[in-house]
Amino acid sequence: REKELEKYKDMKLERKDGRRVYVNANIGGTVDLGPMLARGADGIGLFRTEFLFLDRDDLPGEEEQFQIYKEVVEKVGDRPVVIRTVDIGSDKKPEYLEFPEEINPAMGYRGIRISLNNKDFFKTQLRAILRASKFGNVKIMYPMISAIEEVRNANSVLRQSRLELLEEDVEIGDPEIGIMIEVPSAVAMVRELAEEVDFLSIGTNDLVQYTLAVDRTNEKIKDQFTPYHPAILRMITRVAAAGREFDIPVAMCGEAAGDKLLIPFWLGIGIDQLSMSPVSILPAKETINKWLNRDKTELIQKVLQMPTVAEIQYYLSRRE
Ligand code: PEP
Ligand code: MG
Known about the structure:
This protein has 320 residues and is of the alpha/beta class. Helix content is 42%, strand content 13%.
């Protein structure tokens, strides 16, 4: 089976009209570079930088972060690298930062909220990313965006960081800016958000958690944690449509991006960048290759009319 999948490793996936479909990797650090390169990832769709901040006694400084980002960027050559600013908080709390006692940490002090509340900390990371962006195709992504103001405030800190670096005569690149769409309010505001950024990336893990009010870590309700829920598929369809309307790419980087049964649906609504754990890349490429140039109009129409998880799952499992 492994051997059979090998042939997809260097395959470039393209639609009939020449538009490319990217199968990217989600990584947590330099240790994941080997596995993603071995499977022929087209780029890094999500670098979860919070892992650099965990399991240590102090904050990583600008130089230390810069060296790591630079190493990642250089190892993947000219392939795109989406570096997500820290999404700590919730279940990932470093000991050297002060956190409030929280009854609902997933809905608490986390992600972009922490970055915007600690501008120096945020600037340190943005400066390191801006410097690394000189060495390749880097994009910056903000997590947990729930309102337009957060994007504007984050971009304003980014602008300040850029100006400071230019004043210090430090060389920097010009990375594109994107946001995660993983909170339901961001879906409701997606058209306005699309006007503020260069790309969107759907985080299905948190989008499912927050939309369905199903804790992604709660075993007791794990059957209810599903991207097959019609509410999720309809919301994602709306995000894809906003991307087309405002002519910006819509990517996906939650676990559902590598789901074999859902891939035809993602391709059908026009999502052209799927990012996943390295182990999912080759099986996903096989499925994409099979579906890429088939007509998916009927599949999309049918699924979008179905009112239950069971019907959607059954219907998708019967497509060959
Ligand atoms: C997501 O929420 O889908 C996502 C990709 O981010 P994380 O899993 O790191 O929260
Ligand atoms: Mg998330």
